[in-house]
Automatic annotation (TrEMBL):
Start and end residues of each stretch annotated as Disordered: 787-806
High-level lineage: Eukaryota, Metazoa, Chordata, Craniata, Vertebrata
Keywords: Actin-binding, Coiled coil, Repeat
InterPro entries in UniProt: CH_dom, CH_dom_sf, Spectrin/alpha-actinin, Spectrin_repeat
Stretches of the chain forming a coiled coil according to its record: 226-260
Domain Calponin-homology (CH) as annotated: residue spans: 1-90
Organism this protein belongs to: Limosa lapponica baueri
Gene Ontology molecular functions: actin binding
PANTHER family: SPECTRIN/FILAMIN RELATED CYTOSKELETAL PROTEIN
SUPFAM superfamilies noted in UniProt: Calponin-homology domain, CH-domain, Spectrin repeat
Entry keyword Coiled coil: yes
PROSITE patterns assigned: CH
Protein name: Spectrin beta erythrocytic
Amino acid sequence: MVGKATLPWLRPQDASQWRGRAPPRHSRPELVDFQNLTKSNARHNLEHAFSVAERHLGITPLLDPEDVFTENPDEKSIITYVVAFYHYFSKMKVLEVEGRRLGKVIEHAKETERMIEGYGGLASDLLTWIEQTIASLNSRSFANSLAGVQHQLQAFSTYRTVEKPPKFQEKGNLEVLLFTIQSRMRANNQRVYTPHEGRLVSDINRSDACHLWMGAKETWLGQLEVPQALEDLDVAQHRLDGLEQEMATVASQIAAVNQAADGLLASGHPRSPQVRQCQEQLNERWDRFRELVAERRRAVGSALRLLNYRLEGEETRQWLQSKAQVVRATAELGRDLAGILATQRKLYGIERELVVAKDRLAALRSQADRLAEERPEAAGEVAERLAATTAAWDELQEALGEQAASLGEAGQLRSFLQDLDDFQAWLFGAQKAVAAADEMPATLAEAEELLRQHEAARRDAEEHAAAFAALLEAGERVVGEQEDPQYEGLRQRLRGVEVGWAALGRMAETRHRFLTQCRGFQEFLRDAKQAEILLANQEYTLAHLELPATLEGSDAALRRFQEFRAGMESSAEKVPEAVANGNKLVAEGNIFSEKIAEKCQALQERHRAVMAKAEEAAGLLQDNHELQTFLQSCRELDAWVDEKMLTAQDTSYGEARGLHSKWQKHQAFMAELASNQGWLEKIEMEGKELVSRKPQHGEVVTRRLEELRRRWDGLRGAAEEKGRQLFEANRSALYAQSYQELESWLGRAKEELRAAEQAKDLTATNLLLKRLKRLEEQVGARMKELEELEWQGPTPAGDVPDGDGQEQRLRQRFLELLEPLEKRRKELETAKAMYQLGRDLEDETDEESGLVMLKRHVRQQRSIEDYGQTIKELAGRAQQLLAAGHPEGEQIIRLQGQVDKHYAGLKEAAEERRRRLENMSHLFQLKREVEDLEQWIAERDVVASSQEMGQDLDHVTLLREKFREFARETGSVGQERVDRVNLTIEDLIDAGHVEAATMAEWKDGLNESWADLLELIDTRMQLLAASYDLHKYFYDGGELLALIAARRQELPQDLGEDAGTVEAFHRMHSAFERDLQLLETQGFLSNLPLRSSKSMRMKSRDEGRAPP
């Protein structure tokens, strides 16, 4: 900023430094020629600066050089002058900003003008090309030759695929450019640009070339006549196929035109009616054109099918007649075996060809029916040709029947020969299939697939077993005892069939065994690969195992390794299972036994190595964990020693002012050291034990223990030295004060014993016993303190009181205090025993104690039941004594009766106590459930009673969704819990529980709280719904106002300069009126007052006043 440029001039070290300085030097350095100025001539420099400021900046010189060139210039005057420079440059900046904004507006307008000029040029070029193309297409005449027509078709295809697509893209670009221009002008509040007549999008659409293409094709289709020659029909069919391809391209173009038109209509284009009309005309003409093409294609196809039917029918008829002549000619071959074999070969071939001929005859019948329907004028010719072909078929069948009847007994031989040929052909194919399938499967899936294929071939062979047996039986009948050499050839063929059948069985068995072994090998490879992956993962984990240097890291590493060991244990059987399966294959003699054995050995070695490494890693981690535990204990003790060393080195003892207070604090500190001596000894013992078990850690542990012992000795030495200094500082005063404190404490202790309250219950008794124990401990500590004072007491001097007499008096007072302490302890222990007995007999207790007592009573009741057998034995012995005439037999019987009576009473009392304990346990459980449920309802009450109504529409919508979820969850979970508690209470009341009235009160209070919660939820749902309506009203009203304002801005301010402009403005105004009517028909404006009144009622209710 310019103001920052003047700051250095305003900040001299002192007032005298303003001499020779002026703002132009810092603000506008180009106005001053510094080379012609000298530092020694300060007066001239000031005059020149004031002159330049007045001449170039218009700032009046308020100062003279003498006002500045002085030892003590007036600072306020100078600042007033400098402020004029600041205002000048600030105003220049504002003008500069306004100039830049104006420049942007002008540049934006120039850019829009350039876009308008570009639109006009592009539209003119496109219209010119369209007019030239229309003239060129309309002036064409079709050639009279096929080559000429093909050349014209190729030229038109080039126009459609090469010339037209870029122009179509240009038309789309023109539409985008026009929309951009109009949008920019609307944004700048300029009059919207409207192209001149003839350059509108509608004008370009009317010039679209799709109509021209359809016109040319319609002319060609109208002149197309269905030819009668097959070659001409093929040419016409080919041209129609090419037309189908062109129609596919044109269809995509028409779809693009429809998409562009829909976009213009959706954007509210001023020429929307023209665009819609052009779109409808194009689609209607396209539909008519497709119907015309389909009609011409049907006509050409029908003619082509008729010619093909004629040719096929004639060829089929002639072939059938020729085969009938061949069949009749077989009658001259003779009735011997050679003639029968020759006849068999010919007839066998004809019968195989008849299968194909039958299908051709059925196809001819289908074609005849279709042609009769399509071309009624040719129905007679079609039926005549079909009848001729059918007659030839019947003639051939008749010849075959006559030949079969003429053969007579030779027919059996012929049938056998045919079956023999068929079976030999199948056998050869089956052997070839089995012999060719010798490839080695590379995967388990391939092995299983080959095995399935082999099983299918085996089932096929089993299905042909019956045919093989029938063939052998027929061969025996035909050949019999014939000695003709030709029959000997038949015997050899039969033996060859038998040999081939046996060979097929052996080949199938061998192949099955081979495939089975391959599948077993692939299954083993699959299991072995899974085991190798498992071992590789385990090896990687063990190889990257680290020993952490902290206890936390060691704990984490140990947990991770335990999880790793658990995973190893869960998958421990995978490797042995894979090895066992491999050994089984080797034992069965698998063809891949060598590879399987090598793989099994490798797996076993890797598995043993992994297990050994895991054990080693477990030991290392455990050893490291023990070491880190020891080192952590050492670090903690070390930190404690550091902290206490600061205390030992501090001579002030905090807030302790007197010497005796310091001595007491020091004594407490020494006691703390003594109590923590065991900590050090425990660490030393743990370290020695660790070294004995893990000698590899001996050096680290020993060094750490030595360091700890050295620091501990240093701490203790410092504390003892400090205590010695305190003790020697004023020993006499310390002892006198200590004696006084002991006497004062003894007086308080006696007073406490004298004023001790009496025990009223077990709890108070336990509390009094704790106080008494604490007092006894204090007495012991004070007596020890007295002994230390006697041992360390100072030598009596003239100014020191008699210490021995005072010590004797204190000792006597301590002895007198011990007797009431002992008496008080006996009294409290007796009272405790009495209260404890009464407590054990009470049933009213808490839930945990009630469960304990119930379990204890169950054990007691079980022991009572166990005594039943003993009492029975006693009764039996009493009867024996009475029967034996014992002198006290009757007395024994009476005593036994009393025992039985007392035992029965004991069992009844135990059962009654058990029932009471169970009732109390149920009551405590129910109370806990009721309290938990009431707490849960109270927590839900806080949420349901919230007064948050939302800040805006989005906020209140979010609140409604969250509260709906809250209400659903509360209703489902809460109702279930309330019903469960109610059912429990009703069951206990029906069972006659002694606290039925209390449980009924709990039930009523719980149901009332639940009903209040549901009412709160319903009330908040209504409040949130009303808040939503209010915010929705404000939101919709704001949108409506914004929409009306936007539509109002779109209305032009002027009335138009010509008829076209006025018409366009009129259409825009009509569209505006339709939009307003649409808002009314949608019900928004009609519902607005109702929603407003509802919102006002809600707002009035929230403010606590009546609605207007």
